Amino acid sequence: MRQKIFYCLITIILISCNQEIKEKNLPVFEKLVWSDEFDYQGKVDSTLWHHQTIPIDNGSWANNELQHYTENIKNSYVKDGLLNIVAVKEEIEMYNSIKNFSSARLNSKFDFKYGRIDVKAKLPESEGTWPAIWTLGSNIDEEGNYLGDNKGKIPWPFCGEIDIMEQNGWNKSNLYNVLHFQNSLTNKKDEIKKISNLSNSNDFNVYSLVWTEENIYWLLNNKITFEQKNTDFMPFDNNHYLLLNLAIGGILGGEVSKSFLEEKMQIDYVRIFQ
Asked: 3-class SS at 107?
């Protein structure tokens, strides 16, 4: 009965969302192909998620981030219908590298090309926190990702990266929608970015991506915040997988408050439609 009620609710939500999308001539994706409603307790479901823990930059993570990512339940767990990704101030050694913070970085054990992603999330308030909801091309050669190299060995940014939601560490009213890619026309790393106002990031909001062969759209609570042509000089015509993580410090995290002890990003659900 619970499952029947859930799918009825999904149907009602889709009808409401799709009506608004049709009015704006956005493409509609109605088939739920992968999801996690976090209707369980304890450890994150290992059939759906992979913990990425191997540092990708000589014992550290990219962008001068200050944390190690772990599989520890204190850094990622499900409670009361919510996924909690928790950054903790602690001295931690992994892979012969010592950091002063721990957190979690999850890869979806599912990749796809074109569709819609909806993630309902509540973001942290603390200075120095850098939460992200994003995708990477499945052909990336990055060490420790769940696919390994069975879909290719393409370096970043040739694989393409879509940042559905990023938030900097010093102005929590900024919402970043970003594309990172290697521009095949200029043969240089390129970036297309839109920063929008996010007035209530510490409330639950739905961050969405609608991705087609022709266009890429970012939505906040089903309202378009940014749209971009999916052109031939971009690599967004290959499978991608989803990532959820909470970084500390670094380029977009900035200076960490001296009083920082612990902070979390909470996820109510993740849904992928095609």
From this structure: strand
Would you say residue 123 lies in a domain?
A: yes
CB atoms within 10 A of CB 250: 19
pLDDT tens-digit profile of 97-114?
Answer: 999 999 999 999 999 999
Residue 118 lies in a domain: yes
What's the distance, Cα to Cα, between the start and end of the chain in Å?
25
pTM of this structure: 0.92
Strand ranges, E, within the chain: 32-36, 49-51, 67-69, 76-79, 82-94, 97-103, 105-112, 115-122, 129-137, 161-166, 174-183, 188-197, 205-211, 215-220, 223-229, 240-248, 262-273
Residue 24: per-residue pLDDT = 67
DSSP H helical ranges for 179-247: none
- Tell me if 125 is assigned to some domain: yes
Whether 22 is in a domain gets the answer no
Say if CB 113 and CB 239 are below 8 A apart. Answer: yes
Q: Which domain holds residue 233?
A: 31-273
Give me the number of domains the chain comprises: 1
